[in-house]
Structure formats: structure tokens, C-alpha cells
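The aim of this short unit is practical: by the end, you should be able to scan a pair of folded records and say something sensible about each. We start with the first protein, listed as its amino acid sequence and then its C-alpha cells.
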Amino acid sequence: MSDVKRVVLAYSGGLDTSVILKWLREEYQCEVVTFTADLGQGEELEPARAKAELMGVKPEHIFIDDLREEFVRDYVMPMMRSNALYEGLYLLGTSIARPLIAKRQIEIARQVGADAVSHGATGKGNDQVRFELGYYALAPDIRVIAPWREWDLTSRTRLIEYAEQHQIPVPKDKRGESPFSTDANLLHTSSEGKVLEDPWDEIPDYVYSRTDDPVTAPDVPEEIMIDFERGDAVAVNGEGMSPATLLAKLNELGKRHGIGRLDLVENRFVGMKSRGMYETPGGTIYHLAHRGIEQITLDRGAMHLKDELAPRYAELIYNGLWFSPEREMLQAAIDHSQHKVSGTVRLKLFKGSVFVTGRRSPYSLYSEKVVTFEDDAGAYDQRDAAGFIKLNALRLRLLGRRDGL
């Protein structure tokens, strides 16, 4: 294993990645560079720097990057333009973060002259696939080290024993069996494992961290407005905001009203079903608002085609294929559809739910004159419908005659 001289590790500063840091040095006799991404997970990241330094990583080889704006601008918002939902429900909060982390890891590897990258994803989950597809797409010849697929530290007890053996600090809350695992970023928080593994058991209240209980949420609805330009939200209640600031504001609003909770049994890319709990307060509001503005600005054909493409796009993101040509092709089509998706959507937030109550746009295709039940002053000739119906019925009538109806 001595052919690896330097490796860039996706490092959180937690127990698992701290053990990985030491294990890489022991097993590969290589230098370790740490990379910690700030994607808005709401945690103080400087302790990760202190932990890395404590474990002997050179200060110039510790990278802690604030990627919040890039994350929302270049990953979350393009995905939101597609209205993507994996298996009809999941807003892809974990999935969409992985390609950015992989991209930055490869950039750092090139910057420091590393010949390998490493991550802490297990051999049972989707994240190993997402990270590694990203690595290989951006650096086809990079060496990837996935410790969970190589080592024999197959339990938390073994991890703690290894940590103690090598003087790696073990937080008190890691001593017992973890009740569940979490992943967080500016778009969502996900929880899975342990107390969530039985899909019949209701999720305990203490698992929720990103949203207030809808039952105890305010008894009065809150009305908000979101402005869109070319498919992207740019302002909340008339106040222009950067992408990350805007999503953070929607998270704040959604949290207060208990919006964005999802209990889901999903099909992992690696083949098994898993049960997870997702909290996506701001993303849930954003998704409904975006669909609201599309309702009046997109042509029927464009909207229906987008609805056909969205599940495919969602599956590509879920499976880690952000950097694939097919995702880029779909993105080009989706982005083209958004040129006139501009305007304002009004929504009400109330006890776990979001309701679109109004939408307006300078590019609206909605014509009150045409659709009215009152006198349309010749805007629509109802007699035209007869020929339209007969032409569409022609094949059905021929089938009926053939079959003796």
C-alpha cells in the first residue's frame, strides 16, 4: 500500500473520520490532507481544524471551505428548476450535496499533489457510490480509498477500541450505542438507523431537529411571497437575497410552522430498502412555490414534458450521476424551459402544510378573457370544440366499429 503518498480525506472531525485519518496513516504509510465542507449543516467547524492539528495534520493541509453559496446556487437551485422528487417524495437533500464535496476534494487533491482521495461512507449505502462516481468523473485515474470496505472495524465498539488504542479523543456521546445517524446541510437534515429501522414504529419526537412540531405550531397561518427570475427564487417578501441566505430564510419560516417532515421507505441504489426521516423545511416551501409560478408561465407541452423528465432527473441525482452527460442534457432542456419562469408566488404556511394562494407574472399565459364563464367577447369560439373532439375521437370510433360496438 506504500504506492499512496498523499491522500485527501473528507473529514468531519467526528469519531469515524478521525479513526479513518489514523488508519490511513497506519495502513498506507501516507500523508493525510483533511477537507471539511461547510454546506450549512449548522455546526461549528473550527473544532475539526483543532482535531486535525491534534492528530498531526500540517496546518497547510487542513482545508475548511465555506461552500454554502456555491451549494445552493450551482446545485440546489438547478435541481429545484426540475421539480425533482425521488420516488415522488424525497427532495434529495443528501444526494445533491455529494457531487460538490467530491468536486472540491478533487480540486484539493490536484492543488496539494495527492494521488488518492478517501471518504467515510459505509459499504451498504448510497454515498459511497455518489462520492466515487464524482471522483472518477472529474479525475478518471484517481485512487479511491474506502476504509469501510477494507478494514475490520465493523462495529462501534471496535471503532472506540481503535480510537483509545491510538489516543484519539472519543466524545462521551459516542460511548453508547448511537440511537440513529444524521446528515445535515442547508437544504435538509436526514436521520436513519437504529430507532428508525422498523418501518412500523412511529418516529420518536426527539429525532426531529430541524422542524417544530406541527401540532404546537402557530394557530394562525403566515403569508409570504417569493419572487422568481428565470426559474430561481431571488427574494422573500420583497427582500432580495443571495441563494444561501434565501434558503436559510425559508428554513426559518418552515421550521416555525413544522413544514417539511417526511417518513420514507426508499429503494437505495445498492439494492436494499431503507427507512429514513427527512426534514426539508425551506426546500418544501421552495418546491411548491416554483411549481406555482410554472403553472402560469409554462406552456402545457413544456410543463408535461418536464413532468416526464423529472423522475429520471431525480434518479440520476439520487444515484450519484450529477456529472454524467445525460444529467447535463436534461439540465440544458430544463434550463431552457425556465427563461420566462419569472414572477411572484404568494403562499400560506400553517401547521406542517404549504398552500399556494396566488401567482402573478409579466409572462403569464393565463388569460382571464379566454377562460371566463361569462361573455368572452369572441375570444373563444365554443363551436370549434366540435371538430376538435371528432378528430380526437376518430380512432376510438374506428376501434368501436371494428369490434362491433
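Turning to the second protein, read its sequence before its C-alpha cells, just as you did above.
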Amino acid sequence: MARRTATLTDPVLAAARDAAHAEVMAAARKFELAATWAAMHPAPVTDPVVTATGVVEMYGDQPVTLAGEGAPGMSEFAVAEFAAAIGISTRAGRDLIGAALECRHRLPRTWARVMAGEVPVWKVRRLTEQTHRLPPPGAAYVDRHLAPVLDSCSFAQIERAVETACAQTEDEKAELDRLDAAATEFFQVRLGDAHLNHGRVPVDGLLDYPVALALEQALQAGSHHLLTEHPDLSLDQRRALALGHLAASGSESAGVAEVVVYAHHTPAEGHGIVDVEKLGHTTIEQLTDWCRHLATRVTIRPVLDLGAELTTDAYTPTVLQREQAVLTNPTCVFAHCARSARGCDLDHIEPWDPSGAGGATTSWNLAPLCRLHHRMKTHGHWTYRRLTRTRFEWTSPSGDVYDVDRTLTRRRTR
């Protein structure tokens, strides 16, 4: 489709237009390279390891499907390597490569316009978010009707085109609707947004009617019982408090011993700001309120020397070693990974050998890795070495070197 371009006489405006076009073309080139990398690293053929209890365990590289029906799969480890190369997290790399595969293999007309710089990648990615669930005829319908006008389409128009595509593929629409309905139930406790709401956590979800009805009845009963004890609170506040009581009683029945909030404070710094893991900074007053609210036990742990070299003869790190490793590096130490170290494996940087020929279980030889990056280090030919307590040098299978420095994310504990 021909495009008329205005003639700009001002050199600054002309240079800005050229820079904007170069940015569009650079994004298209990266999009193309993402699809090319996927083609270079097809899904590996693996035999699943099944335990005696029937659980499938994943050790080495695994095949992953990142786009809709008809698009090829690829190597899971290769996704992480591409993401590291362009400076994004593995999760973001999955999304980018998935969008590229969806566009290249299922939306060929749209792909051609992206490669020509006529449609920006960011808009195409909003389209692929909608089309990946469609069967091939539906994706082809969307591509045929939207590709010529996608550069001027709104997001609402994109969504309507996808809905029409579902109707055009009526033979598969019922199954799509059924799968979509089953996938719409969710319940989110958005802990990551607590710092935006002064320590209050947004909660939202979409529940099946009987479940929602049971929850509503429990909240009504709970808020009514709290009226005598808290007559000054509004109904909404009492409902929130009732939900907290419900969670506490559920934890007890489920065998959950305690809810732990990790807070770190250095009194010598002379301010009332506390660093709370997974939340950020809050005040001592707020922390005090939390301790009074539903808490059954408050534990204050002594300062842990992060520079101490702790050692054990066993393979499994001690509780103190794990705590020291988590406080030293609060996230997975792989490049661009932000997974909390609390949920990570504690890896022996130099593999442990009970004969003493390998790495020992010492503070210097332990670092937190999320399960994917731990598997990549063990089975995917990635290597790394420790340079300082919070700095690591990773080497990819291709020989690329990544300097990962966690110094600025280190928690203040002393």
C-alpha cells in the first residue's frame, strides 16, 4: 500500500522523522531475528522422565510451544539465550519470540508489512495476543482483513476482528468458547502492587458462581461478627478484616504454620524506614500495625553477617547458609532474572563432590538460581563463576559473556 510522506523543511523535524523510522525498522529487524533464532533451535526430541509415582520430571532442555496451532515449537534453553543476548528477562523473551512466530507463520500478510516498516512491532504484538488462540482458519481470516489496515486500526477494532474470526470458524467456535470459559476463572493477590498502595494489596478475580456465593456468605457472616468488636469500622473495612480471619483459619486447617514477612532495618541509619522483601520500603509504624493485625507470633532475628564464610560437610546447605545466600542476592543471579531468591534453588557454583574433589557447601560456592536457569546451568552448557559476593560472570553455550552485578539490589541488613 503506497504511503504519502510529507516533505519537512525543518532539519530537526526531518531528523526526528528519520530517527523514528529507524526505530521502527530496528524493532522489525529484532522481530525477524527472534523468529530466525527459533527456526535455528527447533523443539528438542526428549523422552520424559517419569517417577515411580507417575510424576513427569524435567531435567534437560524441553520443547516449548509459544504460538498458535501450526507454528513450530522450539528449544526452551534457546529462548533464555536469546533473551539474555538482547538484555531482557527469559519471560519477556518468551513473549517476544512467541509473537514473532505467531506473526511469521500464521499472519503472513501482516508479517510482510512489519518487515517493510509499515506496521510497528508493538501494534502487531497486541494483535498476536488475540490471535494465538484461534484455529488456523481464524488466524487467516484476521490476517486477510486486518493486514492492509493494521497501521491505522485501534485495539478495539483488532478485538472485533478476532471475534468475527471466531464466528467465521463456527465448527470450532463452540470448543474455543468452552476452553476460554474454563480458562477465565482466576484469583489474583497482586503482592507486587503493594508498594503502589501504601502496603495495601489489590485483590481481584473471576470465580465460578457457587465458589463466589460461598465466599460472599463467609464474608457477610464474618463482617457481622466483627461489628460488636469494631463498631467504628465501615462495612468494607470489616469485610476486609473478615477475609483476613478467613485466610488465617484456612492456613491453620491446611497445616500452614505461619505467615512470614521479612523486614530489614538498620537502627543506626536514624530513620524509620524498613525494607520489606517483595514489597519495598515502608515505615516502622506500618510494620507495627501488621504485627498487631492477626499476628500470633513476632520473631526478631539477629543480624546475619553476610561476609562470613559458613561451611557444612553435607550437600544440603544449612538454614543459616540459605538465609545468608538469599539476603546477599535477593533474586536469581542469572542475567536479567528477577525471580525472588526465596523460591529459588540454592546452587553449588562448582558442582559438589562428596570425595572433596569438587566444590564444597560453603557460602562462596552457593548462589540462588530459579529452576529454569538452574537446569540450564546443569544441562544446557551454561557456566558461571563468582567474582564477588554479588557479582557473577556467566558464559553462554555460544561463548557470550554476561556480567551480572546484584550489588544495587542487595538488601541492607547491617
